[in-house]
Amino acid sequence: MTAMRSGAVPAHDPAATDFERLSTYPHVIVSWVDDDGYPTSVATSFKEDAASGTVQLAPPAGMEIPTDREIGVMGSHIRPQPGIGYDQRRYLQLWGRTTDRTTFTPVRAWGWDENETPFFEYSERSVPQSRRYLAALSKEKGRTIRPKLSPFWLVLRTTRLPFLTATAVPVLLGIAVAATDGAFTWWTALLTLIGGSFAHLGINVTNDIFDTLSGADDANTTPTQFSGGSRVAVYDLVSIRGLVWVALALFGAAAAIGLLLVVITGSMTLLWIGVAGILVGVAYTAPPLKLVYRGLGEIAVAIGFGPIMLMGAYVVQTGRLAIEPMVLSLVPGILIALILFVNEIPDRRSDAEAGKRTLPTRFSPDVIRTGYLVAAMVAFAVIGVGAGIGLLPWPTLLALAAVPIAFRVHSGLQVHYDSPYTLMAVMGTNVNLNLAVGGLLLVAYILTIAVMLAA
Description:
Elements: H1 2-6, H2 16-22, E1 28-33, E2 39-44, E3 46-49, E4 54-57, E5 71-81, E6 85-98, E7 103-113, H3 119-125, H4 127-141, H5 151-159, H6 165-180, H7 186-214, H8 216-219, H9 240-265, H10 268-283, H11 297-318, H12 323-343, H13 348-353, H14 359-362, H15 365-388, H16 403-416, H17 420-454
Antiparallel strand pairs: 1-2, 1-5, 3-4, 4-7, 5-6, 6-7
């Protein structure tokens, strides 16, 4: 039954599988519009006959099923889950007529089975139908009718604000490394964090613009809390024009803060780092480069959220480049790239349809899982080797305590690779890996500073 697998699609001709599914219901609801224009429905028992393509309806007590109009016959099942909601939801709707008030011949069918199409995927597959309905309603009413969110939730969703942890980790580490070199000014540090955040949010919005225009977001019917973009354009919450203005405002704010910091520090190195950061971020999805469409997204993210962010923060404080922050920047760069890497897994089918050739669309699950573990171990090796040869302070070895988290993510990928919604917990653990390593490294540098001050 195609409709039940794909969710909200136009009704189809009844098939043998529809009669098979109908047999699983204990009774059906028969509905029609009465002579006065009111909807009427009644429950009754039935017997399906797939061979003849008919359903025998038991005459309901006290009511007669009409023969001069179309009626609907629906079987449904739902199980309440106290304190949670419902599960085991499945519906089958048939439309047709009866000739003798009991012999029903369906001509159209539609249905949904939660065991075949999860509720969230079903909802996403319903979006085009909802957009058509709102467009028709807007035409009928003579004014634009579209869904709305409160300003707070709309801003949160449009910018994907919670992902700012990817900016906070490298920026704070860059500031911490500078502090161990005796350079720290709190207000320029704060400006760096704010400017980097504006740039990150601008990149998020820009990515949504180009993913919407390319059709990648429309093709994605299994977005999750961590993947699939903000989808505000897909849901008609914000127009593409509106997103363009938001992106320009965010980039404008980031550029203004960046130029202010360049003037304050007098560092042209900082200027080029800032320009490189914005160019890499925009080129991630924007033509002509479209790096993520060419399988280069992870490299772009590693550079942007590793050396560019961390070194930029370090240069603001010190006015120069150095080996230590460059080496350290590889760690958040790899780990944040791995966040993207894992988040691309549930989107791989829709990405492939839209020509977005990310690494999970190019390689087998085994290669992706092995690649994840190897890359994570490289990040930890940078810490171990860096501390071992004296490039990083020895307290940074504390970050190796997060190694088990990487193995938990790898184990989760083994089990949940093909299930977007159970994979969400794994994606969340992967985000926590970056936060744990970043937090432990930050603690390590604070300890280093404390030891230096006490000496």
